Amino acid sequence: MGKSIRSFLNENSALVTIAAVVLLVLSLAFIVINSKSGGRSSGPIDVWYYDLNTGDLFEGTSDQIPPIEAPSGPLSGQAGVPAGVKAHVFACNDCGDVEDRFIGYLEMYRPEVRDRLLEFRNNPKAMETMSPEMMPDMMMESGMLVSNVEDQNWVEAMSEMGMNLTTQAIRSHPCPDGKPPHWCAPGRK
Fold first, then answer.
1. Is the bond preceding residue 67 a cis peptide, omega within 30 degrees?
2. Distance from C-alpha of 164 to C-alpha of 121, rounded to nearest angstrom
3. Nearest Cα to Cα of residue 127 among 11, 43, 33
4. pTM of the entire structure?
5. Buried (b) or exposed (e) across 145-164, using 16+ Cβ within 10 A?
6. Closest Cα partner for 98 from 59, 61, 57, 62?
7. What secondary structure letter does DSSP report for 126?
8. pLDDT, tens digit, for every residue of 39-85?
């Protein structure tokens, strides 16, 4: 069965590209619409961000596209580059207990993708000006990067290394009761 799907994709590359572009446009429209409405009636939620300069967590909202401004200012040695990246924080029991929670992995977008996402969010008409060549690239590579806290070796989230990094973050911290750790937001128990 695998060969028949692969054969179909190879023989219909134009159709696959069109489908990818349509899916990208729909995804971007969803992002724009949800960012305008907050995605829900209560608006964005608070999430954790990590200051690359200080190693400290700080609160921000889920509608921000990392990297974002950090309390410490721009990234050391890189004028104008924000130092705040999203932190995926987990705990076995109490998210408020600093000893129980841990940072599983960090997340940000490549600069050019972040700039386009901000442009789409702030100006939905910007999607109309996107070059057709850019759409498949953004679809195939979301531009989301992930890293662990220790070495900050950023890799594409959708790559094999990226997927291993995000799943390993949870597997490497087993809870005493055998359950996986749960995701933490600021103020969550």
1. yes
2. 30
3. 33
4. 0.71
5. bbbbeeeeebbbbeeeebee
6. 57
7. G
8. 444 678 999 999 999 999 999 999 999 999 999 999 988 888 999 99
